[in-house]
Specification:
The complex is a heterodimer. By secondary structure, chain A is α/β, with parallel strands linked by helices. By secondary structure, chain B is of the alpha+beta class. Among the domains of chain B are: 68 residues, Arc Repressor Mutant, subunit A (Orthogonal Bundle), CATH 1.10.10; 94 residues, Glutaredoxin (3-Layer(aba) Sandwich), CATH 3.40.30. Chain B has eight helices and five strands; from the N terminus they run H-H-H-H-E-H-E-E-E-E-H-H-H. In chain B, strands 2-3-1-4-5 form a five-stranded mixed β-sheet. The longest helix of chain B has 19 residues. The chains are: A alpha/beta, B alpha+beta. At the A-B interface, helix 5, helix 7, strand 3, helix 10 and strand 5 of A face helix 2, helix 5, helix 6, helix 7 and helix 8 of B.
Chain lengths: 441, 238
């Protein structure tokens, strides 16, 4: 089996997003089963499954839950919180948004189970504001779950209470960083916090808090129903389970593909019709723009946490953005750098100033109005941002530049020698050669 | 060129109802300040932007200074300093959408509408901006109107779209309700006041389903839940 639809198994049913559509496929049965278990046993179950955070970092989810102080003393005595990071904004990443549109109840059920496990009576779903229909679906799923007794007081007669609130963000990529997200949820500018202390002990309102990605939480009901061994029967040795891969760019069939961790891009492309006709893969990201670029030489790298790291990149969010040979890498890198400059929160100097200056240099490079020394200045700037920024945004900003120059330095130089960009941007559009697209000169 | 000051005579005032709804939002949270982001969305749902009056209302209700509220409001891209159009059009120009056609679409709309980034038409119908990634890369190039998806656009389709907005006849979003809500109506949903439209529209768009379709053609499924773990159900069974 190449593909293993679990999360996506019923998305093709027109009512998959409703509570009826969800309960038809054993929806909320995992919650009943979980509420009959001891919370610590649930944490052990998720640890044993090997589930790792699907938001990009790949930290073991059960271990994160286990860090929450329990008991009547100290931090453990404070209210505990679960916060779902639904702020999906990493360029290329487009899995949580369609997932929440198609099946918000799987997330809500996962929220209830995870909250019970960490002994939280209050959970928040922090969703980016720019996707209103997804927000509606989440709001209505939560309403339906309350009405059905899956949330609220005395859930399923267990004596366990849980309040869940859908909270819309307001447009800030940095809020995907978990401590910035917490500041934002507290009503502040979304800027990252110094760690330690970590959210597990001092998170929302300085209380013990788990912050998990949508897909991580939504995977929990299946682990409760199928068991740790069932989940771990998929995937690779250290990267267990199924996951959503998001294919985009110059491919025949962009979209969501659910498969065990460890599938390769070659497999995904072969089974989905490959790159668009007559074109070849030039570069791609394994997990969003913050993960260093790869090329056709990496088509056979298993897409799990270890193997992608071993070739110098990161699995990230499994956002496979594929660009063909019509694409100018300098243009691509400039655009990503503009993004990081726009989204830099301003808290730390290397990221705030560095991203600003890198845009200036890349603009000159793209226009051919630069020198070879500018390429080195660019790399030097990256060197001063990477590892010296307050959070991972700065590190991520250097990924496309450093990998782009490493892999395609000749192309950067070519912009200098030919006095500008040698590529035709019209050729890389999806409507290249389509007269009805109405392209005006 | 500096823009003219906002003509506040055209901006609806914040009312006692706005204040009551702000308090309703505050009551949802364990700590009041957490309500600030949804309250700012609420202000935009009345006035189309975060006005000085809106900042004052939030500061009064939360016991914050206007500077504290202003510092938050100016941090987040979705809060506008000038009134948005009835229809707020955003074109994704992050790398993937830009390369696949977003740059051409944005250039075409700028020329067609005579508007630049973050500008609003004189009649208040349309505002335009370019966006960062909106998590719909499998539908690139993407245009958002009032934060609803208009997938797989071309320059021509985007021009047709804004012409229809100007004519007061907006087409339904690709993955959204059957009717396009206004910027202010959508801002109410973001403030946490659901409009009941979530039950409309498809569960998933075509790109969302391609992997599942290929899996089905191949007969690929996840392994069934073991009988010991769950005696009644497998993930595939209806």
């Amino acid at each position: 089996m190449v593909f293993t639809p679990v999360l996506s198994a019923h998305w093709d049913e027109p009512d998959s997003f409703t509570i009826d559509g969800y309960t038809r496929h054993c929806g909320y049965e995992a919650l009943t089963k979980a509420l009959a278990m001891q919370p610590d046993d649930l944490i052990s179950l998720v640890k044993d499954s090997g589930l790792r955070g699907r938001g990009g970092a790949g930290f073991p989810t059960g271990m994160k839950w286990g860090f929450i102080p329990q008991g009547p003393e100290g931090q453990g005595a404070k209210s505990h919180y679960l916060v779902v990071n639904a702020d999906e904004s990493e360029p290329g990443t487009c899995k949580d948004v369609p997932f929440m549109m198609a099946n918000p109840h799987a997330l809500v059920e996962g929220v209830a189970i995870a909250s019970y496990a960490i002994r939280a009576n209050h959970a928040f779903i922090y969703v980016r504001g720019e996707v209103v229909h997804v927000i509606r679906r989440l709001q209505e799923a939560v309403q339906q779950a309350y009405a059905a007794g899956h949330l609220g007081k005395n859930i399923h007669g267990s004596g366990y209470d849980l309040e869940v609130l859908v909270h819309a963000g307001a447009g800030a990529y940095i809020c995907g960083e978990e401590t910035a997200l917490l500041d934002s949820l507290e009503g502040y500018r979304g800027q990252p916090r110094l760690r330690p202390p970590f959210p597990a002990t001092h998170g929302l309102y300085a209380s013990p808090t788990v912050v998990n990605n949508v897909e991580s939480i939504a995977s929990v009901p299946s682990i409760v129903l199928g068991g740790a061994e069932w989940f771990a029967s998929m995937g690779t040795e250290k990267s267990k389970g199924y996951t959503l891969y998001s294919l985009s760019g110059h491919v025949t069939k962009p979209g969501q593909y659910e498969a065990p961790l460890g599938i390769t891009l070659r497999q995904l492309l072969e089974l989905s019709g490959g790159m668009r006709e007559g074109r070849t893969l030039k570069f791609w990201t394994p997990g969003g723009s913050s993960t260093p670029l790869l090329t056709a030489d990496h088509l056979d790298v298993p897409l799990d946490y270890e193997a992608v790291s071993a070739v110098g990149s990161m699995l990230g969010t499994k956002a496979l953005q594929c660009f063909d040979d019509t694409t100018c890498v300098v243009r691509a890198v400039l655009r990503w750098t503009e993004f990081y400059a726009h989204e830099s929160c301003g808290k730390c100097t290397p990221c705030r100033e560095g991203t600003y200056w890198m845009v200036q240099i890349l603009e000159r490079l793209e226009a051919g109005d630069a020198t070879e020394a500018d390429i080195d200045t660019l790399l030097d700037t990256c060197d001063n941002i990477f590892g010296r920024s307050f959070c991972a945004l700065g590190d991520g900003a250097t990924s496309p530049i450093v990998s782009g120059v490493q892999l395609f330095r000749d192309e950067f130089t070519q912009h200098l020698t030919s006095g500008g960009c040698p590529f035709d941007p019209a050729a890389s559009t999806v409507f290249a050669g389509v007269s009805s697209a109405g392209v005006t000169a | 060129m500096p823009q003219a000051p906002v003509d506040t005579s055209k901006v609806p005032p914040l009312t006692e109802q706005t204040r009551a709804e702000a308090r309703e939002i505050i009551a949802r949270y364990p700590r009041s300040r957490s309500a600030l982001l949804p309250m700012l969305h609420l202000v935009q749902s009345v006035q189309g932007y975060v006005s000085p009056d809106g900042i004052r209302l939030c500061s009064e209700e939360l016991g914050l200074t206007k500077a504290e509220v202003g510092a938050v409001a100016t941090f987040y891209t979705m809060y506008r300093r000038r009134p948005a159009g009835t229809y707020h059009v955003g074109v994704c120009t992050n790398t993937l959408c830009a390369v696949l056609g977003g740059d051409a679409i944005f250039a075409s709309l700028k020329e067609h509408l005579g508007l630049g980034h973050n500008e609003t038409s004189d009649d208040g119908t349309i505002s335009l901006e370019h966006l960062e990634c909106n998590a719909a890369c499998d539908y690139a190039p993407v245009v958002m109107v009032n934060w609803e998806f208009y997938d797989d656009q071309t320059p021509q389709s985007a021009r047709d779209l804004v012409d229809a907005l100007h004519a007061g006849n907006p087409p339904a979003p690709t993955r959204g309700p059957s009717r396009l809500a206004t910027f202010k109506e959508v801002s109410r949903v973001l403030a946490g006041f659901n409009d009941g439209l979530g039950q409309e529209g498809p569960a998933a768009g075509p790109a969302t389903l391609v992997g599942l379709e290929i899996a089905k053609q191949r007969g690929d499924t996840a392994p069934p839940y073991p009988a010991s773990a769950s005696p009644t159900q497998t993930p595939e069974e209806p």
